[in-house]
Structure formats: C-alpha cells, structure tokens
Amino acid sequence: MNLSPVPALHPIRCLFLLSSAALSLMAQEPTVPTTLPPKPAPAAVTAPTPPVVVPPASPAPSATAPAMTLVPPGKTGGLPDNTTVLAQRAATAFGEQKWEEARAAYEEMLKLDERNALAWANLGAVEQQAGKTKEALECFEKSVLINPNLAQSWSALGLIYSSNGDTYRAISCFTRAIHEEPADARAHNYLAIAAKNLGWIDAAQNELQRAIELNPQYGIAHFNLALLYLDQKPPAIELAKRHYEKAVALGVEKDEIVERRLKE
C-alpha cells in the first residue's frame, strides 16, 4: 500500500501572514495587536491605553488570536513619555489595517525617543503586516539591539529568518526568545519547526512536548506533534491520533491527508 505523505508542519501565521501553501512544516496561527502601555505622562491621569502591536506570546488556533497579557514594564520598558494619543492612534490604525497611519504614529514616537525598543518593535510589526519584510527585519533588529530582553522581537526575527530559509539563524533567535521568556509556548513551537527543518526530530518532539506542557490548550502544538508521530518509521498511529483529535477539539481545522494516514 502506498502511503500518503505527511503534510508539513507549518509555523505560525503570526506577524508575517505566511500562506499555508508556502510553508512545509507545521500548523499556523494568526496574530493581533497585543497590549503594552506607554509610560504615563508626569502629573497626569490618563485612561487605560488600548493595545499596541508587538508579536504575541500566547497561542490560539482560531481565526483571531487573543491579546497577550501585559509584559512586565520593568523588563521591556515602555513607549516614550507623553505618547498616549499616539499609541491610541497607532492601535486604531493597526486594527483597521491602515498601515501608513500606524507607521506614521510609531515614526513620530521614535522622533521623541529614537532608542525606544518597543516603538521599534511595533513599527516592525506594522512593516511586516504591510508586506515590507526587509524594513520589518531592520526594525526588529534595532529593537533587540536596544533592549535584548524583548522575547517577542527575537521570535519575530526568527520567523523572518525562517521564511528566508536562514534556519540556523532562526534557531538562534528562537532559542534567545525562550531564554528571555521560558514559558512562551509559541516560541517552543517555532523552535520545533526550525529543528524539524534541519532533521532534528528528537529536538523538535521535545520542544513540542514542552509547548504542550506549558499550554495544554495549544491546539497547533498538538497538531504538529501528531504530524511528527505520523512521520516516524514506523508511524506512532495511536499517539498521532490522540494529539490530532485533541488539536481538532481545540479548534484546529481538520486535515484530509492526516485523517487518511490515521486510517491506513
């Protein structure tokens, strides 16, 4: 009997909106703006700031990923002082996919503080969504150069390097992201994908298992682990079936090839 090939594990349809057809490894997931507050203006009381854009840290295999929880300001810093209105404008523009307006808002912030790591990271997110990968890469690189503790920027860099085929550099970035945020399940998933691309199957499996330990409701990681089990020689059908069914129960779209393989 000829076996159908196991579909590739897709990385996440994170900041970079990579099409599933162009990816060869694991299941993907989308992204939305996340919440990071600017520094409050001195002697002023302001309303809570709406989300601004930084690569998210919490996974969700649905059409829209939830906003991440606030990143501790002590580690990542904040947006420049007195930029509440700009942050609101940027968040609104990003949500409406008005990239030029969002870009202008973050560029205005950077005129106030050209060494603000979060502003560079958010500008990178805008550039990536606008399809300007080169500019996005430069922004994220500036972000981690200023503040190496920004795990989301390291993950964003890793995803860009992965899409460019620079797997070793991607692994370096994902590893650094995990160093900064060990509990980031998505970063473990990203690292698993990169490891699988190099044929490091045991490492990929370990990273996916770690991602699931950190977030048992991470459907994408369950799906990807099912693909790895199916790709074993011989395939671990029962383990693959268990994780595939869990992924589907969590909202991951069914895959005809996987279901056919599970029945062979």
From TrEMBL:
One Pfam family here: TPR_1
UniProt signal peptide: 1-27
Database matches in PROSITE patterns: TPR, TPR_REGION
Presence of the UniProt keyword Repeat in the record: yes
Keywords, ordered alphabetically: Repeat, Signal, TPR repeat
InterPro entries: TPR-like_helical_dom_sf (IPR011990), TPR_rpt (IPR019734), Ycf3 (IPR050498)
Alphabetized Gene3D superfamilies for the sequence: Tetratricopeptide repeat domain (1.25.40.10)
GO annotations of cellular component type: cell outer membrane
Domain of life: Bacteria
Cell membrane found in the keyword field: no
Swiss-Prot/TrEMBL GO biological process terms: receptor-mediated virion attachment to host cell
TPR repeat copies, ranges: 117-150, 151-184, 185-218
Protein name, UniProt field: Tetratricopeptide (TPR) repeat protein
